Amino acid sequence: MSGNTSKCLQLENINPNFITMEYAVRGPLVIRAGEIEKELKQGVKKPFDYVIRANIGDCHAMGQKPITFLRQLLNLTFDPELLNSPNYPEDVKARAKTVLEGCQGQSVGSYTDSAGIEVIRRQVADFIAARDGVPCDWHNIFLTAGASPGIKSVLALLRCKVDGKAPGIMVPIPQYPLYSATIAEYGMTKVDYYLEEESGWSLSTAELQRSYDEAKKTCNPRAIVVINPGNPTGQVLTRQNIEEIIRFAHKNKLVILADEVYQDNIYDKDSKFFSFKKVLTEMGSPYSEMELASFMSTSKGYLGECGIRGGYMEIINMCPQVMAMLTKSITASLCGTTAGQVAVSALVNPPKPGEPSYEKYIAEKNGILGALKERAELVHKTLSSFEGYKVNKVQGAMYVFPQVVIPPKAIEAAKAKGLPADVFYASELLESTGICIVAGSGFGQKPGTYHYRSTILPQTDVLKDMMNKFQKFHSEFMQKYK
């Protein structure tokens, strides 16, 4: 029974799905990292001076500087009096005026259409059409507060028993915990399909079919989630792999949910981003008629504006009546934050060559992506040298997901504390070095293997310090539990 029986709400009488759901990226280790930060401020002596939060893809928290163009656009739209200031370039002023003209009362303080400001939705459509070389209808664009609400709205749409069976959602393992948390919250069934670590986290259709056939016994698989570039795995799918996934989804009547928020984060010279929409369209009928929802965010890429909460989703080939129901459900939330919508405008309609802001914008963008590429290589090279580590190349996104061989004595020590071995490893690392990572069990992993996810976001000098501390810790850990 719950502790306080005088309360109306008890653990026994709330939605049980809330108890089931977990979100490892902000779990107990992160709470402990916050406590350690407070202890350091209070003067408690530790074997380190500061905490490195490598647990979450929060670019600005890790020292990344904002893109000037985006912040100027926000300033001008939120304080239109600045449009008279000589301190802002004319191309930014012109864009701010366009956005303000799209707002009721020419103010970002007004409600927008539930799907977002029309002029920005049109800008998104132009951006997608230019990216993919295929048409894009702005009516299919919804502006969202980051990618997460868009993903949740589509998953909510699928929440319906078919033939008496609960809906199943196929998700890659390892996966981003938003999916497992939302699927649990909605009382749906998570259908795991394993990525092939041995071949750079690729995806085999045989594994997809195995997963689907197994799931059919207990649920009704209705959609497949694909994260490309991968989180937490950092791989970039080949075009051939994308075509195979599309054929599989068509054969098994699955809606495709394409999480493409890291499309700008490609570091490997042999890798290239292809959107699911582009590939599906170019494959022609019947694949070009498939239902697809794709998601993008201003939190990642080179903007890294996590807190502003900007994003969009594009939905194609959905039955018009179903689209109307989805739109109706979105209207219940009134509208996404206008700051996020302005950030989306900055993402999809950046300065063009010849415009006053272009040189500074492109220098900042290339500087950020270049530094991330350098860090991706540094992390891969360093971790690959550790005893008992298997590390795939970080082709894209912002993370590394190494496999760690944890000695039997350490596994026993973890059991004695009631912890999974990878959580024990991550906990020991945090207490010894101040480095906060997320254990692989929070993302899913093949039974008998242990991993963790770390971001590559710390600034290069901090990242080098982090790698040195990590190396020393791992060496001592292996020695201690030999």
UniProtKB/TrEMBL annotation:
Cofactor section: pyridoxal 5'-phosphate
Ranges for domain Aminotransferase class I/classII large: 87-447
A Pfam cross-reference name: Aminotran_1_2
Catalytic class of the enzyme: transferase
EC nos: 2.6.1.2
GO function terms (MF aspect): L-alanine:2-oxoglutarate aminotransferase activity; pyridoxal phosphate binding
Alphabetized UniProt keyword annotations: Aminotransferase, Pyridoxal phosphate, Transferase
GO biological process: L-alanine catabolic process
Pathway: Amino-acid degradation; L-alanine degradation via transaminase pathway; pyruvate from L-alanine: step 1/1
Reactions mediated catalytically: L-alanine + 2-oxoglutarate = pyruvate + L-glutamate
InterPro entries listed in its UniProt record: ALAT1/2-like, Aminotransferase_I/II_large, PyrdxlP-dep_Trfase, PyrdxlP-dep_Trfase_major, PyrdxlP-dep_Trfase_small
Keyword set includes Disulfide bond: no
Subunit structure: Homodimer.
Entry's family note: Belongs to the class-I pyridoxal-phosphate-dependent aminotransferase family. Alanine aminotransferase subfamily.
Protein name: alanine transaminase
Organism: Musca domestica
